[in-house]
Amino acid sequence: MITTLVLAFGLVLVIEGLVLALAPSRLEDLLARLAEIPVEARRVMGLLAISIGLIICSLVLSGVG
Q1: Is the torsion defined by CA of 23, 5, 56, 64 positive or negative?
Q2: How far, in Å, CA of 42 to CA of 34, rounded?
Q3: Where are the beta strands (DSSP E) in 1-65?
């Protein structure tokens, strides 16, 4: 279990690193647009992302994926 968590954390770092390395100016634009979204809408987007992530993990672990 801990190996899987460390692997997942490593993959997140790789993906975020790619964004920073390959498109830093686009990231600035994205952050500026994100700042324009109301806090409550950002919270809902975060909760939705968590829910979708948990569903995907659950499907993969149950063997459906």
Answers
A1: positive
A2: 8
A3: none
For residues 41 and 17, what is the distance between their CA atoms, to the nearest angstrom?
26
Instruction: Identify the three-state secondary structure at position 25.
Output: helix
Q: What is the residue-averaged pLDDT of the chain?
A: 90
Nearest to 15 by CA among 25, 27, 28: 27
Cα–Cα distance, 31 to 35 (Å, whole number)? 6
- Overall pTM surpassing 0.90 (yes/no): no
Calculate ∠ Cα 23-26-28, nearest 5°.
115
Sign of CA dihedral 53, 9, 37, 27: negative
CA–CA separation, 62 vs 54, rounded Å?
12
